[in-house]
Amino acid sequence: MAQEPEKMTAAEKVNNDTESQIQGEVASIAGGKLDVAAKFLASLGPEVTEEPISTKEARKLLWKIDLIIIPILTFSVIIAAVDKIIISNAAIYGMKEDTHLVGDQFSWVGSIFYFGFLIAEWPANILIQRLPVRTFYGATVMAWGIMTFITACTSNFAGLATVRFIMGIFESVVFPVCTLITAMWWTVSEQPIRVAIWFNTLSSIITGLLSYGIGHAKTNLAPWRLLFIVLGAITTVWAVIVYVFLPSSPVEAWWLTDREKYICLERVRKSNTGIEDKTVKWYQVKECLLDPKSWLISIFACAINIPNGGLVTFAALIVNGLGFEPLITTLLGVPTGVVGTLWSLLFNIAASRLPGYRCLLIVVSIIFPIISAVLLWQLPSANKVNLLGAYYAFYSYWAPYTMSTSLPMANTSGHSKKVTLNAMFFLGYCIGNILGPQVFRANDAPKYHRGYIGLLACLITGAVTISLYGLLCKLENIKRDKLQGGGPVPQTEEELREEAFSDKTDKEKPNFRYVF
């Protein structure tokens, strides 16, 4: 979108000065509490900042960002999901028998991954703030790729559980990294559709096709072991690609010019949420923990992910229980990825065009998996076709979660507060996925009626909590409008820029308005 000509006052003052003068100017803004973006802007000369940003220039840059960052985030999420959900297809390929799993041990193999996720979540978010994102993320992708290899060597519950636990530790960084990167590169209005693209269910398509192909392989290895070996190889190669192409922030992108970096920062400046600051501010952590909106969105993340945790572990067993043989079962998993991704894109496009109705759209999108859960619970087991149709339709549950993932970042300012809320949100995600496999018990197979009742309760809880979250956001906006005489107080461009990159929290910014 075209911008009016703007001048970077700090940059003009320091253009011909020494490095020490530059840092002195930087320290003068916001009492020295600046993030990386503000420091970069203060170092720019007028030849970069004085020329107005044209619509054509901004659009060209957005395409460049989309073509580089979106594929990295998308494939990173797909790789992580495939490594995680392949356990379901491995189960029907003989893993349960080869590792001597009995009773509900398979449920615990599914849950224990998220115990590792849970333990590592907070430290991972702190490390993301302290370390260069691309280095840290590239290393963790490599680590979980190695653990995927090792899974093929397990022969009992203890070994399988240990490897899955460690994998959970390393994969805990995926969504915090992707969410923070999304907030750095795209405006609030641009985020929903981008999140829907990278936060997809295409992993089900890859998992189904890969499993079907490996199921036909003629080797001395058990098919489930070969699955993990192939995926481990793909993941380790991807780790190198991530390290080379993923920048820690726009100002560190080697494939952008200074002018393009400047435009990047100007684009997200209007979101008023900042870019990056490696200092942990504990008052921001406290503010986040005392905010009821933080807890509501986190409870929502937990409730909506209990179905996800159950299906990640039991999807193939549910379909296999309908009477389909293992090879056909793997192929029947492919449509779930299509349904989940298309439904998510549909609602996220609607959310981007109706920004004032995001929470309402989330509630509407939850209605469809609720109906599907009722059908799975009530339809007779002999009605195989309709049960399979209801099973596919249930994957519409993915849309409400993807629409919610950009809310914590869009409604939070202050880097330490964002990191804390990010940790809480994905803590909810983690707990939900721990509980999910426990909803499906071995003695309920193959109908899993109690499992479907549990999923139904979770979806209703999600609808209630996201409704309350949206209500609180709306009430806070009304309160701020009244205090400011009907709307945000006009600010100069210099004041807007300094506030946007000063690393203040949303509560410290009277002009901040919440998205709901």
Automatic annotation (TrEMBL):
<protein>
    <recommendedName>
        <fullName>Major facilitator superfamily (MFS) profile domain-containing protein</fullName>
    </recommendedName>
</protein>
<keyword id="KW-0812">Transmembrane</keyword>
<feature type="transmembrane region" description="Helical">
    <location>
        <begin position="389"/>
        <end position="407"/>
    </location>
</feature>
<feature type="transmembrane region" description="Helical">
    <location>
        <begin position="295"/>
        <end position="321"/>
    </location>
</feature>
<feature type="transmembrane region" description="Helical">
    <location>
        <begin position="359"/>
        <end position="377"/>
    </location>
</feature>
<keyword id="KW-0813">Transport</keyword>
<dbReference type="InterPro" id="IPR011701">
    <property type="entry name" value="MFS"/>
</dbReference>
<feature type="transmembrane region" description="Helical">
    <location>
        <begin position="327"/>
        <end position="347"/>
    </location>
</feature>
<dbReference type="GO" id="GO:0016020">
    <property type="term" value="C:membrane"/>
</dbReference>
<feature type="domain" description="Major facilitator superfamily (MFS) profile">
    <location>
        <begin position="69"/>
        <end position="516"/>
    </location>
</feature>
<dbReference type="Pfam" id="PF07690">
    <property type="entry name" value="MFS_1"/>
</dbReference>
<keyword id="KW-1133">Transmembrane helix</keyword>
<feature type="transmembrane region" description="Helical">
    <location>
        <begin position="419"/>
        <end position="440"/>
    </location>
</feature>
<feature type="transmembrane region" description="Helical">
    <location>
        <begin position="136"/>
        <end position="159"/>
    </location>
</feature>
<feature type="transmembrane region" description="Helical">
    <location>
        <begin position="106"/>
        <end position="124"/>
    </location>
</feature>
<feature type="transmembrane region" description="Helical">
    <location>
        <begin position="195"/>
        <end position="214"/>
    </location>
</feature>
<dbReference type="InterPro" id="IPR036259">
    <property type="entry name" value="MFS_trans_sf"/>
</dbReference>
<keyword id="KW-0472">Membrane</keyword>
<feature type="region of interest" description="Disordered">
    <location>
        <begin position="484"/>
        <end position="505"/>
    </location>
</feature>
<feature type="transmembrane region" description="Helical">
    <location>
        <begin position="452"/>
        <end position="472"/>
    </location>
</feature>
<dbReference type="InterPro" id="IPR020846">
    <property type="entry name" value="MFS_dom"/>
</dbReference>
<feature type="transmembrane region" description="Helical">
    <location>
        <begin position="165"/>
        <end position="188"/>
    </location>
</feature>
<feature type="transmembrane region" description="Helical">
    <location>
        <begin position="65"/>
        <end position="86"/>
    </location>
</feature>
<dbReference type="GO" id="GO:0022857">
    <property type="term" value="F:transmembrane transporter activity"/>
</dbReference>
<feature type="transmembrane region" description="Helical">
    <location>
        <begin position="226"/>
        <end position="246"/>
    </location>
</feature>
